[in-house]
Specification:
The protein is of the alpha/beta class. It has helices spanning about 5-10, 15-20, 35-45, 70-80, 90-105, 115-130, 135-140; strands at about 25-30, 55, 85-90, 110. The two termini are about 25 Å apart. About 45% of the residues are buried.
């Protein structure tokens, strides 16, 4: 876990086996495979390897766009029993993610209206500290209010 994030958010940097087994997962849906994987790499450095973070970017043929199948697989892989937070970059990514969530039998994932990078960082840090899905969702949505300057 990154040295400064827990202190900023007031969360402990301790993981237990029980927490890891029921940790909130995060899925990053982007039109760009490179963008999704780059953000995933950043989140792993910030929140730790224990947090199940999956990237679902690009189309199946390697182009820009979104893939229903990639999103579905990513959600299933990220689901460790604590629920899954789905963050998207732009318009049609939202529509594709909504369709996936509507079609899934398991109702364990939520689509969050949050800034892609800032929301993902906030949610990942809290997930790594053992927060539940509601707390991670709230942190992601509140990230839109964090000023940069």
């Amino acid at each position: 876990m990154n040295f400064f994030m827990p202190a900023i958010l007031g969360v402990p940097a301790v993981h237990s086996i029980a927490r890891v087994a029921h940790m909130v997962g995060i899925v990053l849906v982007s039109h760009s495979e490179r963008l999704a994987h780059g953000l995933r790499d950043m989140l792993v450095q910030v929140a730790g390897e224990e947090v199940p973070i999956e990237a679902a970017g690009g189309t199946d043929d390697g182009g820009l766009g979104t893939s229903y199948d990639r999103i579905l697989v990513a959600i299933d892989r990220a689901d460790r029993g604590g629920g899954v937070l789905v963050l998207t970059d732009l318009g049609s990514a939202v529509l594709t993610a909504q369709t996936v969530l509507e079609d899934r039998v398991a109702n364990t994932a939520v689509l969050v209206d949050a800034p892609f990078v800032e929301g993902a960082v906030a949610a990942a840090v809290l997930a790594g500290a053992g927060a539940d899905l509601a707390e991670c969702t709230r942190a992601a949505t509140e990230a839109r209010d964090v000023r940069k300057l």
